[in-house]
Amino acid sequence: MTLDPEAGLFHSAMLRHRSKPDLCGNDQDAPHDAQRGVLPSMTRTSLSIPMPSYGLTKRGTRFLLLAIILCSVLPATFYYREAVRTYFSDHLPPLYEDYREREQKLGHYKDYETRKDVKYLWSANHAHSSGWGNVMQDYVMNALLAHSSGRSFVFDDYIWNPDGSLFTDYNGHLIPSRIPLTALLGGKYNMINFRACTPLTWTVLGVHVSKTFFNKVCPNPTIVRVSEVNDDRMRFDESVPSSYVFEKWLEKLNSIENPCVEIDQKSQPILNTGEIFGHERMLSIWKYLKDSPVSTHWDWSPLIHDAYRRNRHIFVPNAVSTFFQMLVGSTIPENYTNPIPGLLALHVRRGDFENHCVHLGKWSSNWNAFNMFPEFSDKFERPTDGGWGETSEKNMQMYMQRCFPTIDQIVEKVMQVRAESEKPLTHIYIMTNGAPRSQRHVEQKFVVQSLDMLVAQRAEVLIGNGWSSLTSNVVMLRMAHGLLPDSNRFW
Q1: Which of 74, 364, 372, 435 is the most buried (most CB within 10 A)?
Q2: Residue 463: how many CB atoms within 10 A of its CB?
């Protein structure tokens, strides 16, 4: 009996029963003379003694076939149980009810309800209706500000559509309008894995809490508008480092006695993506971020780690998994902070990103945030003879090669990086918005970008897109975990 893992079905050879002759040499399976209408000859020398048959009865055959079917169907049903549940729920996307329920019952809530020394920061103006890369950047900055000011970070859902709907039509497909943050990010207390921190650090930082819990314990928060701190110079002057903006906000928060602070929902982000993240001045905040638990103890959710284990054979080709491990996820112990030996991760954006690259070229846009560390070997010199919606043909060709490379350009870059790498790069994983490549549950389908980031974070070498916030976030995590700067390359 063999297993075809691609089809998820068992293939079994037909059971054959070979009839055995009786003591007199007669075929037991052959019809007796009486059955043929001929009286048997009952002589002293030719007495037929019937022998017991060892063949399967009709009932036994049916039981055997049923067992084979169950052995084929039950494991597949267990493995794709979320897909089966979704199919019988009118094909609707998941709502992640289990994650949302757990968020409202975190173990430290009872203690926090009675304590008077815990402070909170709720950024009601957090990013939404955008891709996960931009939203994650905003969450990182808000969590860093909360951590640095000694306040508990208040988290909310990853929101694609804030209109209160359960589902949203996106390019003809239904997607969840909002996803609990704990379906993407992990650690015992969400976003940061505080198990790696000391008990003293817990009391200083405070542990993250949900928006629902904040509303319960903070009925009268102090509401701060971003315009109270950020002026036009801080927003638009590229000579003003992001660390200066950050320090001004630390001063503001530390001057507020109310333990409950809320950033006004209608305000612009404190560190606006378009105004600061697309400039080198964003790098000045690295001195606060590089040693913060926000980056050093970042962790992904159990849902993401489960997706990794189920597809470990893709990222670690030499890994051997049994059939059972393929069903429930590989159980092979692994240090998730170590690089995956020989893995080269490529971030290749496709689809509508082509038009975005044209837009970037016309406006002479710079790379994103942490893709611009000066110690990187691949750099980008922003052209000075374009912008404001116009650029030269030469500049546009340069933008397209580095933002939306052709297949030949991708192959050329991969060959160059492999030749220059000090360690052998034996296999490639491509992060793209093309067709899906991995096995995953329905819940994992809508957070698969986090699986890509987990793999790219641990790759031996990454070739990323300099204008991508997703690449920037991966590079930030790689630098925080001490990977060599030259392991971060760009088209």
Answers
A1: 372
A2: 26
In this predicted model, what pLDDT tens digit does every residue of 183-241 receive, in sequence order?
A: 999 864 344 443 334 333 333 345 799 999 999 999 999 999 999 999 999 989 989 99
pLDDT < 50 stretches in the chain: 1-47, 86, 88, 188-205, 323-324, 330
